[in-house]
């Protein structure tokens, strides 16, 4: 049986993810305003780690992160297990997680990664973590980083709204147009 994981990002289309999912689930950044079961949390952003520290949050699933964020969590004695697993950081946490998981899973489903098919870079994290204005070209910068992910032997499924135009990233990248829009 093929091993699968769903990465649920924080873009507006994350609501397309529905349970049950026959595999592991990884959520991006601070799990906020999302009521799903997940096995991992992926964070590469200090602002998210600061938020967890400041609010003394504890999660049942481990946080997967970079060495510098692991050191921050270790120094500040996070109540949640934090694992230093990312050797390569690809600008955003969904791409970083997908690259990391690409050696462990046959197929990775991507939800809430709207910048892959639109210019939208807003995030549910914006509701709890204040950020500066994002660049108008951030979606293209992120897509450039995703090229590293697509160049693996893993299969990817980008889950998007029904009326989304697809982009030909690579043969191993498929599209699922959800009617749950």
Structural class based on helices, strands and sheet pairing: alpha/beta
Residue share in helix: 10-25%
Q: What can be said about the biggest beta sheet?
A: 8 strands, parallel
| Poorly predicted runs | none
Shape: globular
Number of helices: 4
**What is the averaged pLDDT score?**
93
Order of helices and strands: EEEHEHEHEHEE
Number of strands: 8
Strand ordering within the main sheet: 5-4-3-2-1-6-7-8
**Cα radius of gyration in angstroms:** 15 Å
Q: How large is the share of residues in beta strands?
A: 15-25%
How many angstroms separate the termini?
30 Å
Structural write-up:
It is globular, with a radius of gyration of 15 Å. It has 4 helices and 8 strands. The chain is 22% helix and 22% strand. The chain is α/β, with parallel strands linked by helices and 181 residues long. The protein has an 8-stranded parallel beta sheet with strand order 5-4-3-2-1-6-7-8, with helices on both faces.
Give a concise summary:
The chain is of the alpha/beta class and 181 residues long. The chain is built from four helices and eight strands, in the order E-E-E-H-E-H-E-H-E-H-E-E.
Please supply descriptive tags for the structure shown above.
181 residues; alpha/beta; eight-stranded parallel beta sheet; 4 helices; 8 strands; 22% strand; globular
Please specify the SSE layout and strand pairing.
Blueprint (H helix, E strand, L loop, with lengths): L3 E5 L15 E5 L11 E3 L3 H9 L8 E4 H9 L6 E5 L6 H9 L5 E5 L26 H13 L4 E7 L11 E6 L3
Helix pairs in contact: 3-4
